[in-house]
Amino acid sequence: MVALQVHFLLIPSLMSIMGAAQYMMQDAALLSYIDQRFLSLEKRLEKCNQDVLEYVDEFREFSRMVLSRLAALNTGKAEVKREVENLLTRIEHAQRDIDYFGSVTDSNACVEVHEDLLKQQLLEEAEEKKRLKVMLNASCDHVLAGIRSLKVVKKTGGKHGSWMKDPGKKHTKIYLLSGSVNNMVLEFANIMSFMENNQTLKARRVPLPLPWEGTGHVIYQGFLFYHRHGSLNEIVKFNIQRRNIADQMLLPGAGRIPAYQLSPQTKIDLAVDEQGLWALHAEPETGGNIVITKINPVAMAVEHSWDTPCSSKDAEAAFMACHALHVVYNSPSGGSSRIQCVYDVLDALNAYTNPGLHFPKRQGSHSTVHYNPKEKQLFAWGDGSQIIYKLHTKQK
Predict the structure, then answer these.
(1) Phi then psi dihedrals of residue 384, to 5 deg
(2) What helix, strand, coil percent values describe the chain, rounded to 5?
(3) Is the CB of residue 346 less than 8 Å from the CB of residue 298?
(4) What number does CATH give the domain 142-395?
(5) In which element (H, E) is residue 294 found?
(6) From CA 205, how far away is CA 188, in angstroms rounded?
């Protein structure tokens, strides 16, 4: 009986020893497999290194052979000579890359400008500036010093719109263009007629054959200039009295992004000052900065363009006054408008930001701000209200 009990006690012990032996055999097999794999990988890496060394030696030998043969060539033909120089350069570059495998060598380019060429460029720039002064008839001797007061003339229309007068000497009519896409212009006999309560009944309606886009239109010398709706950068010249299209033109580079970030409905903003007709827009190539273009209103052609440092970011409007761009900025939620960038096309070196020109206290935002050079006032549209700002100027 005792022997039988001992037998039963030994069976689990033997099974445990046999299980441990089996695990040891498996571990040994695994270690052997890993060892063989490492040996295989080491042999492959060794072969790879050997192949690389053989390739490098082979290439160097080939390079020496080609260089020696090319050096022996002696021909006077220019075409062959260029090919030889090209091959020499390519081989030298490849040999350097092999010799310094894994390293990067920076090369500095040196551009030498000839002194006579530099003088010629400066002379041409001076001549161009002189030509621009003649073209612009630079008679402006004052700059904007502040915005003194505001007058809300009327509140009619929606959030976006534009209203204006023709800055000609004998023009008293008021023009109202409501909305950012429309084709109906309202013409009033004068400012008093516009201010009356039933002013829309007394207005002369002028339909346009092609609708406008944005709010950047102007009336100048009896013509309405506006950005045609549905076009990228087409500007239409419309005869107000004859009610027909007088001319059209394309403004290169314009129309791809809004002229002002806070007024995305306007891609091209037209402006009038003492020097004539201008176009304002932004381009991706300028980083969103505003571009000024002088337009000949008779020929409907570009006379000159300037890239400005004035950003369209957080801008809501802009206007030209005395051949200087004034950009109006605000906050995205609307607040107190302020002029933070001024750029004079005849004095670009003195362009400055944050001149501290704030509009009179009025919370909101502007859809348009246009300068009237005859009356020295700003005609603005703010949240459905038609506003006039009086300006304070000083001598340059």
Answers:
(1) 90, -5
(2) 35, 35, 30
(3) no
(4) 2.115.10
(5) strand 289-296
(6) 9
